[in-house]
Amino acid sequence: MDLSEGTADVGGFRLHYHEQGTGEALVLLHGGGPGASGWSNFGPNLPVFAQRFRTLVVDQPGFGGSDRPEITDQYFAFSAAALVRLLDERGIERAHVVGNSLGGGTAVRLALDHPDRAGRLVLMAPGGLNLSVFAPDPTEGVKRLYQFAAPPGPSRDKLAAFLRTLVYDPALITDELVEQRYANAADPGALAAMASLGASFAAYPERGMLWREAHRLRQRVLLVWGREDRVNPLDGALVALKVIPRARLHVFGRCGHWAQLERFAEFNRLVLDFLGD
User: Fold this and answer.
1) Which of 58, 107, 175, 191 is the most exposed place for a label (fewest CB within 10 A)?
2) Are 268 and 238 a contacting pair, CB within 8 Å?
């Protein structure tokens, strides 16, 4: 299976993506945070899913190889609208979506605003849909995220501290990974993009509260959580599980916010079984 890479004009700016495989379409949407990209989140998973699906790993607006436009709507809505235009560009009428954290929020907004374009949803500790019942807010991971760009500015140590909150096993956060992500994260354009993203949540707070609209989802939904998630803790799944009509929940023990990497083989089997059921 050939792996291709490209960009598409989605209305005034370009989205970057990797694509592999044939069959039904599947889109993988990464989480947020300094230096994040589709490839950093889902690169190892792509060839597995490409064996059964036409799989696109997309860099959301402001991340990876995509452009960094000013965010003119609540970020989930802005990114979902760009994704629809990417699907149009690639000739895809409907796609299943796997979304991690920020990408999970985009996946939910896509399904709410464009229900005919979204197939089944795999939502991994999704932003906007998680409503913590017991855990303090902001969480440890969110605090570390805020601290990255705070005065006196970004540093490798701050980035490493944030990345360690994403995993159960800190050994996964290698010096090489920190260096790779820091090269992108500390770029002035990337910092401006993060600021624009954050401002969109403040400007349109109700649009980001996806848990209030989740009862409208008619897609089959698989919620995936790590029991030790320190960014969007497990109790954030309870409201989503209760209000989404066709939802199920899978919890990985000894796992943080990156189930697709920390529980790689189990996660791949779980998602493939769910999408093929």
Assistant:
1) 175
2) no
Strands 221-226 and 247-252, bridge-based pairing: parallel
Whose tokens are 């017991």? That residue is: 134
Q: Look up residue 241 and give its DSSP letter.
A: H
Contact 83, 112 (CB under 8 A): no
Quick check: bond before 152 cis, omega within 30? yes
Rounded CA separation 219/125 (Å) = 17
Determine the pLDDT at residue 1. 72
Q: Model confidence over 26-48: pLDDT tens digits?
A: 999 999 999 999 999 999 999 99
Could you tell me which of 1, 213, 245, 241 has the C-alpha nearest to residue 123?
A: 241
Cα–Cα distance, 185 to 175 (Å, whole number): 15
For residue 127, give the nearest of 57, 168, 74, 83 by alpha carbon: 74
Q: Are strands 95-100 and 25-29 parallel, antiparallel or unpaired?
A: parallel
pLDDT band at residue 244, thresholds of 50, 70 and 90? very high
- The neighbouring-strand residues paired with 8 are 15
Rounded CA-CA distance 61/69 in Å is 7
- 18 tagged catalytic: no
Q: 196-243: per-residue pLDDT in tens?
A: 999 999 999 999 999 999 999 999 999 999 999 999 999 999 999 999
Cβ neighbours for 118, distance < 8 A, ≥ 6 positions apart: 94, 95, 96, 97, 107, 110, 111, 219
Selecting among 30, 96, 250, 257, the annotated active-site residue is 257
Task: Please count the CA atoms within 13 angstroms of the CA of 232 that sit on its side-chain side.
Answer: 28
And the tokens for 42?
Answer: 């889902």
